[in-house]
Specification:
The chain is an alpha+beta fold. Helix content is about 25%, strand content about 30%. The chain has six helices and 14 strands. Strands 1, 2, 3, 5, 6, 7, 8, 11 and 12 form a nine-stranded mixed β-sheet that branches. Strands 4-14-13-9-10 form a five-stranded mixed β-sheet, with no helix packed on it. The longest helix is centred in the N-terminal third of the chain and has 17 residues.
């Protein structure tokens, strides 16, 4: 069988199937199952086409998400490297707001230490100090991930094509980021219906969420782009993701940051 996945039309078709799955709430087949050999580069090209379709429909980008940055998430998904996707304005929910799970296929939720940039961040030679200096605010966030394929038996390439499984997100109140704050030591506690389900620290995200920010900056530089002042960055979960069930209330809290809460309907 001829491998056509380098063909622009195949990429557009794969993106169209993902967009249709998102609109209809019906699953589509993972592109990696159409035959062996789907590359990470091709998967990111599918993702770019998906995002282009969303933008053509009126969506507005507000930042980036990084996934699979903790050992717990990599073990859960059976991968060994991070991935990234685009955050769109229509994915955002208000803190304490309600999320109808109708239309989501297999939603899961994870708590993160989010960042908002105060200045542009570009280039391959950035160091940790420069990345820290670009962060203006930090906040707790809950990210809802989902799979347009209907189940989580997918490859890293499938996740990348599906915009790194981004679905919805909620941000808590931001606080200014002092240079003396060690994000690696920030404790995050997650409760579902007021029952403790897991805890994690910032250091569970590649040793420090700033390391995830550096990874993303270098990856974007390789694509000829970068991060911009005002961008939100979700650097990855501090724990393994949790199934999101209708009728539950999920809250992430920390001694250092205001809590964030989501009600699933």
């Amino acid at each position: 069988m001829t491998d056509t996945r380098g063909d622009p039309q195949w990429l557009l078709d794969a993106a169209g199937q993902l967009l249709a799955a998102e609109r209809s709430g019906l699953p589509t087949a993972p592109p990696a199952r159409s035959g062996p050999g789907l590359t990470l580069e091709q998967a990111y090209r599918v993702q770019a086409a998906v995002i282009s379709g969303r933008l053509d429909g009126g969506a507005r980008p507000v930042g980036h998400k990084i996934g699979l940055t903790s050992a717990a998430m990599q073990e859960q998904m059976g991968v060994s490297e991070p991935d990234s996707g685009i955050l769109l304005e229509d994915m955002a929910l208000p803190c304490g707001g309600e999320l109808p799970t109708t239309g989501l296929l297999a939603p899961r939720i994870e708590a993160e230490i989010g960042l908002r940039l105060g200045r542009d961040l570009t280039g391959p030679a950035l160091d940790h100090q420069a990345a820290r200096a670009a962060v203006a605010e930090v906040f707790l966030a809950l990210e809802v991930i989902d799979t347009r394929y209907g189940d989580w038996g997918i490859t890293l390439e499938d996740s990348v094509a599906d915009n790194a499984s981004a679905a919805r997100f909620v941000t808590g109140a931001p606080v200014p980021f002092p240079l003396a704050m060690d994000l690696g030591r920030v404790l995050v506690t997650v409760r579902v219906d007021d029952q403790l389900v897991c805890v994690g620290h910032g250091r569970d995200v590649l040793g420090d969420p700033i390391n995830a920010l550096l990874w993303l900056t270098r990856r974007l530089h390789g694509l000829g782009s970068g991060l911009r002042a005002g961008d939100l960055v979700l650097p990855g979960s501090v724990h393994a993701s949790i199934p999101l069930r209708p009728g539950t209330i999920v809250e992430a809290s920390s001694p250092r940051l205001p809590a964030v809460l989501l009600r699933a309907l």
